[in-house]
Write a structure and sequence with these properties.
The chain is of the alpha+beta class. The protein is globular and about 85 Å long.
Length: 763
Amino acid sequence: MATKQMGGGQIGRSVPRLEAREKVTGRAEYTHLMRIPGMLHGKIFRSTLAHGRIKSVDVSAARGMPGVFRVITADDVRKVIPDPYYGPAFHDQPILAIDKVRFVGEPVAVVLAADPHVAEAAAQAIVAEYEELEPIYDEVEAMTSSAHVHDELRPAGSFADLKHLKGIRDTNLALQAKTRRGDVDKAFAEASQIFEHEFRTQKCLHVPFEPFASIADYKDSGLTIYSGAQGPSFVRSEIARLLGWPENRVRIKVPYLGGGYGGKLYIKLEALVTACSMIARRPVKIALTMEEQFYQITKHPATIRIKSAVDKAGRVTARKCEVFWNGGAYADIGPRVTHKSGFTAGGPYDIDNISIDSYAMYTNMTPAGALRGFGMPQLTFAYESHTDMVARALKIDPLEFRRKNVLRNGRPQATGTILKDAALEAVLEHVADRMRWSEKFDHGNGPIKRGRGIAFALKACVSPTTSVAIVNVSADGSPTLYISTVDMGQGSDTAMAQMVGEVLNVPTESVRVVARDTDITPYDMGTLGSRSLFHMGHAVRLAAEDARQKLEELRREVGEPEGSNASVSDLFVKKYGMKAGNIVGSGSYKPDYAAPDHDTGASPAITPFWMVAAAAVEVEVDTETGRVHVAKLVNAVDCGTPVNPRIVETQISGAATMQLGFTLFEKINLDNGQITNASLADYKVPGIRDLPPVMLNDAIDAFQSNAPFGAKGVGESSTMPVSPAIANAIDDAVGVRLTELPLTAEAVFRALRQKEGRPLEDA
C-alpha cells in the first residue's frame, strides 16, 4: 500500500542525524568501551591448526599465573550448557572447540582476569596438542574432497527449507539451491553463439572500526547481555534456546555500534560471554582486538561459472550458472546467502531459459557470513563482467547490449516473480548520461591508458521477515519511538523518527528513539539486507497511525470539535484533570511471500521489493606498473522516495567506497590456513587518496508503490556494480580481462605481460 498521502512535511528533509551531537562530542556509548561493576575480562586462546582433533589442552601454566581468576575450556562450558552449539541456519558452531578445531583462530579456551593484560598473557601460556587432519580450503574442491569439515549436518530448524538436511553425513555441501525456468538445453542447442566464463572473488573482512565486543551479566534470576549486535531479538531467542530458558529471562541491550556491515549479525561473542559469566558467577566482557576480527567472520569467497546462449539479434536466450560459496568452518547465515542471492545469478536480464545451482560449502577457514550486499557484489562482478565480454565478442556496444536485454517491469524474473517498481533502465541510462557515454572518448597515447566501464544490478530483499514498533505519545504531545532496529551509522533512527513526524505532524527533532533493549523495544528480525526502512518503516508508520487514531478518539471523547486547534496536552488535561497519561500506538509488519518450489525455485512473490543500482567509471591504467587509478565514479540507485536525501547520498558513497577497496586491493591472504596479513598494517582499507577525484552519488526519481512513503532501503545498493564497472573499464583501457578479484596492480601487470607474450614467472 502506498502511503504518499501523509502530510507532515518530514519525508524528504535532510534532517541532521539525531545522535550526531552525542557522537561528535564523544559522549556516545559503545560496548567496546563499557565497564560494569565486578567485571572480568576474557581473552581467547585460539587454534593454530586449520583442521585437527584436540588431543589435549594444557591450561596449568595459565591457571598458576597471578591475577588469573579462571581458565575455561569446552568441558567447563558443557557443565552449564549441555548442548553448546549455535548458529542461525545450522547449530554447528560450538561455544569453544569440542573434539576438533576447524579453522586457524578458532576459540579453544578463555582466560578470565580482572586485568585484561593479565588475561592476555595467561592465554599465551596455554598449550594445545592436535592430531592433524586433512584440511580443505577451496570451495570447488570441497564438493569432491574426502576431507570433511563436519561429520553430520545439524540444521537449526528455524528455516523450513533446511530441515530435510538433518542427519546427512560425510559432505561439505551445506545447501544446494536451485532455480529453473524454461528449457535451457533446447535454447543452447538452438543458440547462434555460446559464451562461457569463470570468475572468482576473494576472502575479505568487514573492518568495523569498533571491533566485536560483548558483556554478559549472569544471575540466577536472569541474564543481561550488552553487545554490539545488529539483531538483538535473534540474540535473545538463541541465547534463551541455549539455556533452555523463556525469553523473558534474557535481556539484550545494544548501545551504539561503531559499524557492523553484516558482521555483527546473529550470535558472535554473546554465547561465549554467557557461558563464561555463568561459570565465573561474575560479569564477563570479551572485546576483540582489531587483529582478532580476522578470526571472527569474513566475506564469502566465491567461484561463479556462467554460460550464456545468444541469438543472431544479440539477445540472451539462455543462461546457466553455478555458484560455489566458501562458507568457511561454520555455516553462519551462508545458506541464506546461497539461496537469497543465488537466484539472481542470472543478472538483471530478461532471459526465458535459466538454470542456476548455488552451493553453500564448508571449508577450513574463518566462517563467512553476511557482508554488505549479502553475496550480490560477488555475483554482480561475475555476471556484469561476463556481459561485457559477450558484448565485445559480438562487437556490440556494452551499453546497447544491456539495453537490448534488460529486464523490464511487468516481466518475470528467473523465479517467476514479476518485476515491479524496479528502475533498472532508469539507473542504467542515468549513469550513461552522467558519463557522456555516447561522446567520443580519448583512450590516451602514452603509457597511461584510459577506459570506461558500466554495470548495473538487481537485488532481492531478504524475506519473509517481521518488524514491530511502538509509538508512545506523552501527555505533553512529545512522541517516543520504540524499535529494535539497530542504528550502526546508517541513519535509521533519524529516518524512522521522520516517519513518526510525518504521520503525527510534528518535527522530526521532537521524536525520541529509545536505545535497543529487548526488555523495552519490541521484536525486529534484524538490521540486515537493507530491509529496515521498508519493514520497520511500515511498522513505524502503522504504530504512528494507531497513535494518531487514538488521539483523534480522545479528541472526540473530550468534546473537541473536528478541526479544533486544541493541543495534545489540552486533551489530556480535559480527560484527566491534569497533564497526565499516555497514548500508545503499535504496529507490526510482515510482507507477502511465497516460498519457492524446492526443485525449481519458482515463486510468484520471492521478495517484497527489488534494490537497483548502476555504476559507470573512468579509469587510468599505467601500463608500466599495472596501477589502476579510478578517475571518475558515477553511482545511481533506485531507493524509491529518499526519506532523508543527505543520508541517502552518504549511504551511496559509503557503500561504493567500501566496494572500491574490495575491488582494487582488499584480500585476506592465507598460507596453509594461516592468515598472513591479519592486521591493518598489512590489510589495507581505502583511504582518502584512494577515492576518485570525481564521485557522483545519485538517487533517481522513483517511487516504491508498496513501501512506506514510497521508500525502500539503499545501504547495500551501490556495492553491487562497482567491481565489474572497474573491470570493464580496465579491459576498455588496455584490452586485458581480469576474472578474479581484487584487481591489483600486479594482476593487471601480469595480464599485460601475458598479452604481450612475455609472461612473468611466479616468484
